[in-house]
Amino acid sequence: MTTLLKIAVVHGPNLNLLGTREPSTYGRATLADIDRELVALGRQENTEVACAQANGEGELVALIQSLGATHDGLVLNPAAYTHTSVAIRDAVLAVGKPAVEVHLSNVHAREPFRHHSFLADIVVGRVMGFGAHSYRLGLLGLLAHLRGIGA
Ligand code: DQA
């Protein structure tokens, strides 16, 4: 039996609108659908998954601080703040827990302003372009990292 792990999934601004927000870019799955699937995948993987979303940068920093303190790792989609936020980068560094960056869309196939990520060099890995599946792949990658699989 593997050790029980606790992972926090943190979603950034406008991701509460998934399902109706630009579906050709972000798909039809709602945030509740994604969270439900991550909790179910976690259960299969002997992992407790807690999910949270916030629209504000400060709220996201607070979530990363509090959930980072009580969880073994973070799956983060900071949405637009990926491309702008030193504060979110600093929060991830401050909690010192392994983090994976995920995006529904392939940000490198989009506008140039989405090509830069303030997290890219401090996360364990990045998954993008697979829609809601990016989150599942990110969670599995983080668990493999924490369990030393493939290290
Ligand atoms: C996103 C990509 C970001 O550029 C954008 O601002 C988002 C969503 C994604 O999941 O594809 O809000 O993080």
Strand order of the largest sheet: 2-1-3-4-5
Give the CA-CA distance, first to last residue: 19 Å
Tell how many strands the DSSP assignment holds. 5
Query: What is the CATH superfamily?
Result: Dehydroquinase, class II
**Under the CATH scheme, which class?**
Alpha Beta
CATH topology: Rossmann fold
The ligands bound in this entry are: 1,3,4-trihydroxy-5-OXO-cyclohexanecarboxylic acid
> H/E order of the elements?
EHHEHEHEEH
Just name the CATH architecture. Answer: 3-Layer(aba) Sandwich
What is the averaged pLDDT score? 97
CA gyration radius, whole angstroms: 14 Å
> Tell me, what's the shape?
globular
Structural class: alpha/beta
Verbal overview:
It is a single chain. Helices cover 37% and strands 19% of the residues. With 151 residues, it is α/β, with parallel strands linked by helices. The chain is globular and about 45 Å long. The protein starts with a strand and ends in a 5-residue tail after the last helix. The site of 1,3,4-trihydroxy-5-OXO-cyclohexanecarboxylic acid has 10 residues, from loops. Residues 14, 77, 79-80, 82, 103-105, 107, 114 line the site of 1,3,4-trihydroxy-5-OXO-cyclohexanecarboxylic acid.
Write the topology of this structure:
Blueprint: E1 5-11, H1 23-26, H2 31-44, E2 47-53, H3 57-70, E3 73-77, H4 86-95, E4 99-103, E5 125-128, H5 133-146
The structure holds 1,3,4-trihydroxy-5-OXO-cyclohexanecarboxylic acid.
